[in-house]
Amino acid sequence: MIDNGFALNVCPVTTLKQMNVDLNRIRPSKTAVRAFDGSRREVNGEIDLLIDIGPCSFSVTFQVLDIPNAFSLLLGRPWIHSAGAIPSSLHQKVKFTVEEKIITVKGEEDYAIYKETAVPYISVGDDENLPFHSFETVSVIRDYGKVGPSRADRMIGRVLLRHHYIPGTGLGARGQGINRPIEVEVYKHRRGLGFRPSCHGIIEARRGNHLHRLATHYDRLHRGIP
């Protein structure tokens, strides 16, 4: 089994026993495996095995784990990077180059694709080779209640209170001027990148600019008349 999302090459202890491999070949290893649920599991050690993939043989270092025998061997990113392999889960095949030749190895049969975790799973019928995980639906929607003032509003309030501002008075240095901050109007005619206006929109925009220029011109004329 090849998994490009796994950071280790994994070999279950049961696989070594089925292959009659001498367990004394297992070397100590300081590697620790962290499952997808965050639990930590120590490995039994590491071992070098010679495996055949298609017409080629590879010497691969596996981390030995005492886990259920859901797969014989798991080849992770260490082997994928060292062999320069390109796995495809969609087409169930793997490609790599040997002596300037592209080797393609197809999957022999369909497998239930999942990742070994500490999450309990249930078996389908009597066939223990088809495990499927069972999950519970958990709501992650939180009720934050009423939304308070933003951080910027709180900062403005602290600055005003620090300068002894009295609510209701003007915002000037001597209490003159407006008594409320200027509110920025939301621009409702925003367009995204690559927007192409229609002919009608272009005509309306030009008409609006023309009317604005006329109003400005007549306002200047009006101010110039005594």
TrEMBL record:
Q: Which residues form a coiled coil?
A: none
Query: Which PROSITE patterns has this protein been placed in?
Result: G_PATCH
- Highest taxon in the source lineage: Eukaryota
Transmembrane regions listed in the UniProt entry: none
Q: Name one Pfam family in it.
A: G-patch
Matching entries from InterPro entries are given as:
G_patch_dom, Peptidase_aspartic_dom_sf
Query: What region holds the G-patch domain?
Result: 152-198
Query: In the record, what terms sit under GO molecular function?
Result: nucleic acid binding
What PANTHER family does this protein map onto?
A: GAG-PRO-LIKE PROTEIN, OS08G0508500 PROTEIN
What's the name of the protein?
G-patch domain-containing protein
Native organism is: Punica granatum (Pomegranate)
